[in-house]
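We treat protein structure as text, and this decision shapes the records that our systems exchange. This encoding replaces a full spatial description with a residue-level series of whole-number codes. Below, we set out a record of this kind in full and without editing:
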Amino acid sequence: MKKESELIKVFTGTESNAILLKGKLEAAGVQAIIKNDSGSAFFGSAPPVIDLYIESSDIEAVQQMLKDFLTINPGT
């Protein structure tokens, strides 16, 4: 039986940085999910921060990539 994996948040920051990191992760073969729970989008304005999640089973494979990215792009 395959162990069920859970999503973990690996980044909170601007939408542009979240999209950039998502592209880097997916190029490395890791599926990433952008989550925006801000209600402000309803009124036509962009939310100030975006969360990016990956499956917990992928964290070891991309740990150094995340560290390097967060050093250069600390989010907000």
Remarks:
- The chain has one domain: 7-72.
- The helical segments are 15-27, 59-72.
- Residues 59-72 form the longest helix (14 residues).
